[in-house]
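Milestone 3.1: sequence recovery, worked example.
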């Protein structure tokens, strides 16, 4: 079962819960854009595709919000460069 990516605007981050661990994507809002600033995947989850699951969920949530995304985080920038289906929401 896939866990959903959850937006926590009070903490300026998206979360993906895997067991007792959280993969996180931090952001800031700039007008109608979400700037992705940092991604963290716990070492215990490394190499299991968790970062990619987090990224896909983040980009899907941003698309659903009607906003654009600015991937300043190197992980998110690299991920979206390999997924051109999200080019329509990338700004910058």
């Amino acid at each position: 079962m896939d866990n959903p990516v959850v937006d926590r605007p009070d903490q300026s981050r998206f979360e993906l819960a895997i067991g007792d661990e959280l993969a996180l994507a931090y952001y800031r809002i700039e007008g109608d854009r979400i700037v992705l600033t940092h991604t963290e995947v716990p070492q215990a989850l490394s190499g299991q595709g968790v970062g990619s699951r987090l990224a896909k969920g983040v980009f899907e949530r941003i698309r659903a919000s009607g906003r654009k995304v600015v991937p300043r985080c190197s992980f998110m920038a690299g991920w979206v460069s390999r997924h051109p289906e999200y080019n329509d929401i990338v700004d910058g």
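The mean pLDDT is 95. The first helix runs from residue 50 to 65.
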